[in-house]
Amino acid sequence: MDHVEYVYTSGMTEADIDDRLRAGEHGVLGLAEDNEAYAIPLSYHYDGSRLLLRVSDHDEESEKGRFLETTETATFVCYEASTKESWSIHVRGPVEKWEADIDETTLNEWFQPFRVFDEATENVGFSLYDLGMETVIGRETVE
Length: 143
Prior knowledge:
Blueprint (H helix, E strand, L loop, with lengths): L8 E3 L2 H10 L2 E8 L2 E11 L4 E6 L6 H8 L3 E8 L4 E8 L1 E3 L6 H7 L15 E6 L3 E7 L2
Antiparallel strand pairs: 1-9, 2-3, 2-5, 3-4, 4-8, 5-6, 6-9, 7-8
């Protein structure tokens, strides 16, 4: 295609990936069951070795819960893009509920405010999930 504009990208260094993950707050988690896909925007916390995802709790029949149970390898994507500059990071691995006692002060430090959609805050709950960082790939625009 002669008249299509292109922008070149290259792989990010481990240090650049680490910096972007530490500075970021949200991304999209891709889950799957058989041949059906499900993706949800989530807040995350990265401490240099662990990627924790904050997932809202709903009843046992929720679509989100079903996909979390059936996905063997999840993909989490965080990115920024404009016409001139872009970067993206894909983290792939197993996702498991993280069982740890974390106080509210720490949760507020780790995560941006929780988004509530037409629900009373006393009815809102969430769980933390650990995404095993088996594969981490970052790409960014090359000037």
